[in-house]
Structures are given as structure tokens and as C-alpha cells.
Specification:
three-stranded antiparallel β-sheet, mainly beta, 230 residues, Beta-galactosidase, Chain A, domain 5, elongated, 1 helix
């Protein structure tokens, strides 16, 4: 019996030691004594212009920002379906807020679960745009126009258009497609090139979120996964 207790104690000690060693490898301590994960997002002090993907004629390079910038208010369009309520910002056509209509925060409550958010410190948004040379086409920083501020899905499908016009006369319609019974939001573009030159272009889509403050957390928490449906 004493031998069993001894072996059990050794096993517990080794387990605790390995966990502690793993913690030391994956975390560091800053000058203020706060524990910070080495994989923590670094805040970007550069301007918003460096946040735009770039394109060239040979290869396409999309540079993701180290941290997103909180959008200023430029108006938005609200879209309501049977499953979703989303707010599409007129700046870039970014989905800045999204609520799940079928899932309240509390059982029997009216407040819906918020999937995407534009709140300071909890930013989580779906950005999309067109990467082109010399900013000839709209990115997630460009300003769009919307014919209506509210759309309601009343049939099986709904298309919400945002429009943009460049200095050279090029026009772009950014379409958001919603379907009854689906959480998927499809995005496509209609481009009318009124310039006198060809415009290389590539679309991009990304989820952008702010860094999570872990200074008061002993252990990091899992904040959720992402499923991509192509």
C-alpha cells in the first residue's frame, strides 16, 4: 500500500511539473509582472492604409493586419432574416454586428446571442473587399452607398446591394445574398470598368478581431472556432 501511494505521488508530481513546464514555454511575463502568451496579437501602430491588401500582375499578396482598427460611424444597413439580424457598415461593406435570432442569451429571454460585434475591446467583424493596384477598386475601408437602411427577408432569397464609384468613373455593386433557413451570407461584385485601362483584381474575405486582454487571466480561455463552408 505504501508503495502504491509513493508511485501515485510521483505520478502526480511529474504531471504537475510537465504542466508547469509547458506553461513556461508558451507564456512570458512582461515588465509589470503580467503573464502574456507568446502568441498574443501585437497592436498595430501604423495607419489604416497599410491594412489594405496589395496586388501585382504576377502574384497576389494579402497582408493581414496584426490587429483591426475600430470603424468610425459611417452609417449601416440592417438586414433581418428568419435566422439572422446583421448590420452592414457603409464603410467597406463590413458586417459589423450579427445576431442569431433563434438563440437568446438566456432561456426564454428576448436578447439574442451576438456573434459579430463592433464594441470596443470585443471587436469581431467580417471584412471583405477588392484588392487592386493604385486603389482603383473598393476595399473594406471604402465608402459605399445603400438605397435602403432596412431589408427584410420575405421570400426564399434576398439580395442587398451596396454601390461605389471611383474617381475614374468605375462603378462597383457589392451584393450580399441571404437565403431562408441559412446562416451563410454570400458576397459577390459587379464591376463596370469605365476607365481606359485593364484593372487586375482579386477579392478577399477575412474575420477581424481585436486582441484579448489577458493581463488579469491566470490561464487563457478558448474563445471559439471557425468553420469555413466553400
Amino acid at each position: 500500500m505504501n508503495n502504491q501511494k509513493l508511485f501515485l505521488g510521483i505520478a502526480i508530481f511529474l504531471t504537475v511539473f510537465l504542466l508547469w513546464d509547458k506553461w513556461q514555454i508558451t507564456h512570458i511575463t512582461d515588465e509589470n509582472g503580467n503573464v502574456v502568451r507568446k502568441s498574443q496579437i501585437t497592436l498595430d501602430t501604423s495607419t489604416q492604409n497599410t491594412d489594405v491588401p496589395m496586388i501585382n500582375t504576377e502574384t497576389t499578396q494579402i497582408d493581414l493586419p496584426t490587429s483591426p482598427s475600430i470603424n468610425e460611424s459611417h452609417g449601416y444597413t440592417t438586414v433581418t432574416t428568419d435566422l439572422l439580424t446583421v448590420e452592414i457598415s457603409h464603410k467597406g461593406g463590413t458586417i459589423q454586428n450579427a445576431y442569431l435570432n433563434a438563440f437568446p442569451i438566456e432561456k426564454g429571454g428576448e436578447e439574442k446571442f451576438q456573434l459579430l460585434s463592433d464594441k470596443t475591446g470585443a471587436l469581431f467583424q467580417a471584412q471583405s473587399g477588392l484588392a487592386s493596384r493604385d486603389d482603383l477598386l473598393p476595399t473594406h475601408l471604402s465608402l459605399f452607398n445603400s438605397a435602403n437602411s432596412n431589408y427584410q427577408l420575405s421570400t426564399d432569397t434576398l439580395t442587398v446591394p451596396l454601390t461605389w464609384q471611383g474617381k475614374d468613373g468605375t462603378t462597383v455593386t457589392k451584393n450580399f445574398h441571404f437565403k431562408k433557413g441559412s446562416y451563410i451570407v454570400e458576397v459577390d461584385y459587379q464591376i463596370t470598368n469605365n476607365s481606359n485601362q485593364a484593372i487586375p483584381v482579386k477579392s478577399y474575405v477575412r474575420l477581424s478581431r481585436s486582441a484579448i486582454d489577458q493581463s488579469n487571466m491566470m490561464m487563457p480561455t478558448f474563445t471559439g472556432g471557425i468553420v469555413y463552408d466553400k
